[in-house]
Amino acid sequence: MFLEKFLELNIAIQVLAGIFLLSFVVQAFYYLYYYAGVIYYNRKLHRGDVKHRIKQPPVSVIICSKNEAENLEALLPTVLEQRYPEFQVVVVNDGSTDESTEVLDRYAKKYPNLYHTFLPIGAKYMSRKKMCITVAVKAAKYDHLLLIDADCRPDSDQWISEMVRNFTEKKELVIGVGAYAPKGGLLNKIICFDNLFNTMQYVGLALRRSPYMGTHRNIAYTKEAFLRNKGFISNLGEAFGEDDLFVQDVATKENTSVEIAANTVCYRDLNFKAFMLDKEQRMSTRSHYKFGIRMKLALDTLTRLLFLASGVALIIFLLNNPGCELFAAIAGGVIFLRYLMMSVIFHKAATILRERKSHVSFILLEILLPLLSAYLVTFGRIGTKKRSMWR
Predict the structure, then answer these.
(1) What pTM value is reported for the model?
(2) Whether residues 111 and 220 fall in one domain
(3) DSSP 8-class letter at 235
């Protein structure tokens, strides 16, 4: 009876319903298989099912900075006073004109394991950030490298220890988590939600043996892997890509690990300009991703938009057809089910990753972020290559 009633509907409504249900199935797969990966992995961590190395190898922490004297004042003590047996901190100062050199000199007198050098102001490179990292890697004394941005800070003195514990046999790359210190307001909700979803994406895919990016705010790899890949040689023509394109070059199914423990999360203060800069960088490098990764990300975006558009259109058409109220109610129930699933997964992931939690705003933010991405693809990226991008 139910099926017969459905088959009597207009063919356009049937096609719309098919698109709607197929999009729901694909979305459910992405959320339960990929994006809930943070939740599954956290359970494994608490059960002790994740293998970690016991021996603590010496580590070189790399920081690249440009006119960030104030940020260095805040960051250096949290890094230099980490509870770890043997490590050095390498800072590359990219031609700063503020008091960065004075700050570094002062800390170098107090901490003998701090080494700093510089990149001349007049040096011409497509990406000064990549050149700074290359200089730092060559200056590093140790094979295990841990990178953090100057405007970030680890929230624990166990950051080095818990990141490096993932360098077990055959592991050469550790993908960490970067978060924003939460503040009030819709704009800050957008930033935190976008960062949370982005983290769930790249961590989730890495856990499913499809690593495609990390964050320059918190990532570790071996010097051997960097040199074997000849640094950033494959993307020297790109202004960006020091984390995502590099990960695509180096990462394999076997050599990559992730770390999501609360002690390893690195925080950055909320800054809309830096956020937009990050978004533009991601948009500019995505076309260089491997085909399989591009298809996975595109399918999620496509089915997300199809689900929203077809769901709204389907309910409108059904409500305008007498006797179809039950079908409209079912469509509404499917929409509610997806957002319930999404809300639960986001809430649990936000708790684990120490991000901001907001059930109701998920719906609004899911609509706003594609619009923001569309803006960046069109007007937002005009003239970006002329800028000096650092974040």
Answers:
(1) 0.90
(2) yes
(3) G
Model pLDDT for residues 165-217, shown as the tens digit of each residue? 999 999 999 999 999 887 777 778 888 888 999 999 999 999 999 999 999 89
Give me the phi and psi of 88, to 5 degrees please: -125, 160
Domain total for the chain? Answer: 2
| Rounded Cα–Cα distance for residues 218 and 176 (Å) | 5
Least confidently predicted of 4-8, 151-155, 240-244, 357-361: 357-361
Are 162 and 263 in contact by the 8 Å Cβ rule? The answer is: yes
Q: Are residues 235 and 372 in the same domain?
A: no
Does 176 fall in a domain?
A: yes
Comparing CA positions, the residue from 128, 186, 178, 133 lying closest to residue 154 is: 178
H/E stretch holding 87: strand 87-94
My answer on whether 134 and 68 are in the same domain is yes
With CA atoms as reference, report the closest residue to 120 among 140, 103, 101, 144: 101
Q: Using alpha carbons only, what angle is made at residue 151 by residues 369 and 220, rounded to the nearest 5 degrees?
A: 85
For residue range 98-137, what is the model confidence (pLDDT) as tens digits? 999 999 999 999 999 999 999 887 666 668 888 999 999 9
117 and 257 in a single domain? The answer is yes
Residues 6+ apart with CB under 8 A from 302: none
> In the prediction, which pLDDT does 196 show?
92
> Is 344 within 8 Å of 364 (Cβ atoms)?
no
Report yes or no: 377 and 287 within 8 Å, Cβ to Cβ. no
249, containing H or E segment: helix 244-250
